[in-house]
Structures are given as C-alpha cells and as structure tokens.
Design a protein that fits this description.
3 helices; 13% helix; homodimer; mainly beta
C-alpha cells in the first residue's frame, strides 16, 4: 500500500484467493439483487468508477457488471461487515435486471413445501440481453 | 437423501467444506443484517425450527443464532440464487439487534473518503448481551 486512499483495502479480510464476498442491494426497493466476488483490483475499480465491478471466478477476470447486457449497477454506498469479510453495495440497477436469467434479482427461487419454486418472472429473454446467452 | 422433504438440499451447490453462504435480511426494514454459513444440518434445522441456525466456522459447531443473546431470527422465507450457492433468509430479528457488537446490522461501516466510518450506533452494550462478551 502506498497511498492513503488505499487504506480501506487493508481493513478487509481477504480470503486465501484474495477475494471478498460482495452483496448488491437495490437502493430503492432494498431487494437483494445478487452476490459476487471482488479482489483488490475489482474493489478499487468499483470505487473509482462508481459502478459495481466484480471478479469472475469462473472466467478468472475482471467483470464489469453490465458490460454486455447494459445492466450496469451504479454505486451509491459500500458497507463492510463486523468481520471485515463481506461487502454490501447499495446500487441503482440500470434496466431493473440483475440476473443473467433476465430477472430483477438472482434470488428468484423460494423454498415451499420442501422444494424450490420459481417466484419471480423473467423480464427480458436472455437471448435478447446477451449476444452469447448464458443459460 | 431418503425423504422427499430433503430434496431441496440437493439443489444447493455446497462448497468443498459442505457449506453455503446465508444472508439474513430483515423482513420489515429490508436491511441486510448479517452473512453467515450453513451446512446441511444447519439448513434442515432452520427449516424445521423456523429460526436461523448457522454453522459456526470459528467454533466448528451448530450455532443457534440468539441462543445466548436472545436475538433469535424468526424465519419467514428462504430464497436460493441462480447459481445455487447463496441463500437469502427473510427474518424477523428479535430484539432488533443482529450484530455481536450490539448494533442492528453487521454492516455498520461505510466507505467514506477512503476509510471505513462507523455509521450506526450500538443499541446495547455487548457486556449486557453476553455472559462472555465477544469483543
């Protein structure tokens, strides 16, 4: 660390892969939209660019949320939990769709009578969101 | 798996330690209260007893949230995300305090000008909550 601005990175308890869990919450509806991961670079980019930028574990690269779909998450606030190992981002979800399935939130399955029921609708077909649909 | 009731456990992507991330959200205020972990037993207990029961990674045992503090989380709904690796619990937070520091939420530090500012007050001194305060 060589700048005062980066001190906040030191207070985070990065895991053995250098990652921290990040929750995105809609600042208006307060819905929990999704959970992803950040490394130091992703968090710094998020702070600097004021939009959610994650680390994709599957693709092993920086993931600028909305880069393909346009469903950018504009950053409002970031909180750190008492253990220092989870971040909570309050965001404005552009397009009202956070999930790659075309739903507003990734938490669209609810436990009912011993199984997961899909309880929220697809707002936009993923074929129309992505050039290469992630089904 | 030997009962229909346990089918929902199979849809979860348990990590290599047999755990899944669990977010607790207040069903009234919609505040994100805390993040913890569950193993299969913890989730089954949660569903059966209709209160949040986690797996404590530090103590390596079942953690009945509120067992010492009285700050039980009454379960209302459970959601699973699209990847199947994060649970979202909507709960009623008894006592209005989820954090071991005596605050309503564990996310009480906000990033401001490059450092984490404590932005929510202690509602009850941990010395008064716990017999053996966890500072």
């Amino acid at each position: 660390m060589n700048s005062k601005e980066n001190n906040y990175l030191q207070d985070i308890k990065w895991d053995e892969q250098g990652l921290v869990t990040a929750i995105a919450q809609d600042i208006s509806s307060k819905s929990v939209l999704m959970v992803a991961w950040m490394n130091r670079e992703a968090l710094e980019l998020t702070v600097n660019e004021q939009r959610a930028i994650y680390w994709s574990r599957s693709r092993q690269k920086i993931w600028r949320k909305g880069e393909e779909s346009g469903h950018v998450q504009k950053l409002h606030n970031i909180y750190l939990d008492c253990d220092g190992d989870v971040l909570l981002l309050e965001v404005e979800q552009i397009g009202g769709i956070a999930c790659h399935t075309g739903r507003k939130s990734c938490f669209f399955r609810e436990l009912k009578d011993g199984h997961w029921d899909t309880v929220t609708p697809v707002l936009k077909d993923p074929d129309q969101i992505y050039k290469n649909p992630k089904k």
